[in-house]
């Protein structure tokens, strides 16, 4: 039955059918909706020969209709007869007297509600995005609205409040790649939940550009697991109208290579403006940033911050107290600092990787590459591989890295960039550029 409580809607059937009730009563008048719901349930799910599930259906239907102020006398009387006749109580009896009594109490309360005056008729609209906005390939200009909002991406790309406010009223460009359907009603197939999927272009424009070579536009990089230009958002023209949008042209030819792309990791919700996140901050933070490797230019404090975030990522030991974990981290990070100091003494160099800000480091001293630290949230995005490859390109042929023998992930990264095992003892594996 999939019931998790004795309440009228505390079961899978009631929850699964709720969206179908909404779609049917949204599209059709009450008699037509009831006929279509009944036909769907009988054809695809069950009928009165399955008393438990039939109760879940009929009771949840009556409950939905009563709350919306559209309960008919026919449905009311049918459900009252089921309650008064103890229809479908056998399974509850098998669960024990306590459960049966609880179910009977819920049914008595439900019966009383059905006999009471129902609320005024309410407008019924599916809680989904029913429209498919724009055409695939449309390039759309959208206005930034930063005034009065906090800049929320400072940990990823530093920016002052003044810089953020300065782009208020300016425009960014995005292209609809496709419109995805997440859910479709089985009773009313045209009622679907649409999500628009865009790619974001790099650049902020003072006004809507009138003359531009769209094929030459570079893609922006949105902060997320994939660090790509792709994002999904609510498929609703409401949000775009508020941002004074304009469709500049349709260049479907520019999205042909993306037609089979996986669903974007990143979602930007136009409807959410919170102290900790807003869409304008996410759009602005994606502009003008590229992944680069070079001599580390950050402060010693930021370097320690990087090492700390790298060292502590997903390493909390639940067998220890918080104080014991902190002491363990502190000792490890003291040794990390000593290792970095040793590498930099006598001419060693530190290199960093950045994407808006530096979040990874590595040291090179002579032939020795060491102290690779990437902040935790970026460790699985290929940044460590890229920085390590850069360091070995600087160090040259014959350069090596001693990797803890238990660190299979780092050994794998070394192998990915062409390093070979040239030595091994109980504690370390030497990986060398040949």
General description of the model:
The chain is α+β, with helices and mostly antiparallel strands and 434 residues long. The chain folds into three domains: 12-115, no CATH class; 138-285, no CATH class; 292-433, Aminopeptidase. The protein is built from 13 helices and twelve strands. The chain has helices spanning 12-27, 30-44, 51-68, 73-84, 90-94, 97-115, 161-165, 237-242, 279-285, 300-312, 322-344, 383-395, 408-416; strands spanning 138-143, 171-184, 192-200, 230-234, 246-250, 292-295, 349-354, 358-365, 368-374, 400-404, 419-424, 428-433. A hairpin with a 3-residue loop joins strand 7 and strand 8.
Overall shape: extended
The spatial strand order of the largest sheet comes to: 4-3-2-1-5
H and E string: HHHHHHEHEEEHEHEHHEEEHEHEE
Number of domains: 3
Structural class by secondary-structure content: alpha+beta
Task: Estimate the helix proportion, in percent.
Answer: 25-40%
Major β-sheet, in short? 5 strands, antiparallel
Cα radius of gyration in angstroms = 30 Å
Low-confidence stretches: none
Distance between the termini: 64 Å
Mean pLDDT: 93
- Number of distinct helices: 13
Present the secondary structure layout.
Blueprint lengths: L11 H16 L2 H15 L6 H18 L4 H12 L5 H5 L2 H19 L22 E6 L17 H5 L5 E14 L7 E9 L29 E5 L2 H6 L3 E5 L28 H7 L6 E4 L4 H13 L9 H23 L4 E6 L3 E8 L2 E7 L8 H13 L4 E5 L3 H9 L2 E6 L3 E6 L1
Antiparallel strand pairs: 1-2, 1-5, 2-3, 3-4, 6-7, 7-8, 8-9, 10-12, 11-12
Helix pairs in contact: 1-2, 1-3, 3-4, 4-6, 10-11
